[in-house]
Amino acid sequence: MHHVDLILTLTGGLAAALVLGYVTNRLGLSPIVGYLLAGVAVGPYTPGFVANQPIAEQFAEVGIILLMFGVGLHFHPDELLAVRWVAIPGAIGQSLIATALGVAVARAYGWDWTAGVIFGLAISVASTVVLLRVLSDRGDLHTQAGHVAVGWLVVEDLFTVLLLVVLPALLGARQADGQSLPLVLLWAALKVVALVFLIVFVGGRVIPWLLEHVANARSRELFTLTVLVLAMGIAVGSAKLFGVSAALGAFLAGMVVGRSDFSLRAASDALPMRDAFAVLFFVSVGMLFDPQTMLKTPVLVAATCAVILVGKPLAAFAIVLLLRYPLKVALAVAVALAQIGEFSFIVATFAKEAGILTDVAMNTLVAASIFSITLNPLIYKFVNPVAEWAMRLPWIGGRPNTRVLSGDGEVASGGTAKHRAVVVGYGPVGQTVTRLLRENKIEPTVVELNLETVRRLREAGISAIYGDASLHATLASAHLAQADSLILSASGVRNCQEVIRLARELNPAIRVLARSDYVREVAGLKQAGAARVFSGEGEVALALIEEILRPLGATGEQIDRERDRFRSEVLGSTNPRARA
Question: Which listed residue, of 141, 194, 370, 527, carries a Cα 20 to 30 Å from 33's Cα?
């Protein structure tokens, strides 16, 4: 394998993904569509540059591991428990219906039962990336429908993990000479139990200890490297030592890190690497797409798309309505789940390598994914108008529904939101600001990079986030979008202007108060969007002006004039009476 092929494949794949991902994003579609089309563009079935497929598949393996690590990292049982009465029966029911429809399509084309079941399971699982993007773009992520859809998807993700456990066992049973299927499955189950015990119970103590010691070194590069080594090392070790899929090991590793105090920092520091390799995963899947094959089997592609775009949403819609949720929630959940993506490809890729699925099946899944991901956000735009129209109909508008979601499950909504502020840094200034906020009935959330400080604040009942404020994920986890103010109380906040820019991107109405050490930083912080900037040098200079002039007999008006002159000439204030 020549190093030139590796560089060309990496550069060509990422460049094509960048261009087509940007184009599809500008068109209002998911960038995943662009990544898949990039794979088609650099694949062997289209003219022009052809990437090295074995190399692309190796990058894809890393992408799968990091994707599953991310799933484990963000898996919170509380989110599932809050919507368990709809998410668990709904996901199970919809998956069974979609799988049955997929089996019917596969059998109609003469595939065996194993291929049919795997094909059906692959099209039953929706894409987490697409669903979260669609819900957030329409402002529905934190609504009742959003909570139900995300909980539903968590159950589907767990199905995927379970499938990745069962597939190697089934394959082993097919290849084993003289061994019965129950014996092979029992041996596989014992290995999985041993792996779970080792990672969750033993690793649950060792991994946080290791991360804490690395974090104390205060090296971002070392922390990022540690998280990546844990994800990759546990995944590879799971495959080599226990004979299970690397994806399962990565998921369990993510769960352990996610349950520690380092979950947010791991997500913000290390998972950008996941995004890059995930792009290459989609590119490698797109490279498998042969337009000629699709033209030879148009009915198969159309039938698969019908299952995804019609069968799955109808099943979800009926289940949510039967569970007495509002019509709009049923519509939103049904449409949001009407697509397939990364987990379908993970299952299909594994099955293809195991010889269960053919190239035609893989090609059909890629085509169906491109169509469903492209159409999904466009269809979702009609959820509100259709729901409003339907509610005007007398036999629908008068339909009673009793379930309204809150944090503990099924409680009527109500209550008013508190005033909130995000405080970055908990030094002497941050402590004073936090105390004043609490005394004035404003709920503070402190963002701090000192783990002991974060733990102490949480013990005192104060909301605290361990993470770097210059990263989007940290500010989002601090719920900055629902805050009234952002207070940068620490003098050494890294990338302070970037923090302000990200904050205003998350919440355009946020009022930013910033602290700086030097006067030269004031203009840049104001330009970035800070409403007020308090400079250490500036405050000292203003105090000195008063202390020098007052003993000389200067009047209050003269002192104010000199202070205003300093603000105007040195601090660049447009309002003479405004403080730095």
Answer: 141
Burial of 193 from C-beta contacts in 10 A (0-12 / 13-18 / 19+): exposed
**What's the mean pLDDT in 272-299?**
83
Q: Which residue has the tokens 């460049």?
A: 15
- Distance, CA of 163 to CA of 158 (rounded, Å): 9
pLDDT of residue 414: 37
Consecutive H or E run containing 29: none
CA gap 227, 157 in Å, rounded = 22
Long-range contacts at 223-227 (CB < 8 A, ≥ 24 apart): 223/265, 223/269, 223/270, 224/269, 224/270, 224/273, 227/257, 227/266, 227/269, 227/270
Sole residue written with tokens 């991107």: 505
What does the pLDDT read at residue 391? 77
pTM recorded for the entire structure: 0.68
First CA to last CA across the chain, in angstroms?
Answer: 60
Residue 117 pLDDT more than 80? Answer: yes
Q: Where do the CATH 1.20.1530.20 domains begin and end in the chain?
A: 63-276+289-386
**CB-CB neighbours of 277 under 10 Å:** 17
Distance CA 137, CA 113 (A): 39
Tabulate helix, strand, coil % of the chain (nearest 5). Answer: 70, 5, 25
CATH 3.40.50.720 domain span(s) along the chain: 420-530
Question: Which range has the worst mean pLDDT, 43-52, 180-189, 255-264, 525-534?
Answer: 180-189
Q: For 420-530, give the CATH class.
A: alpha beta
Contact indicator for 339, 155 with CB cutoff of 8 Å:
no
Question: Beta-carbon neighbour count of residue 205 at 10 Å?
Answer: 10
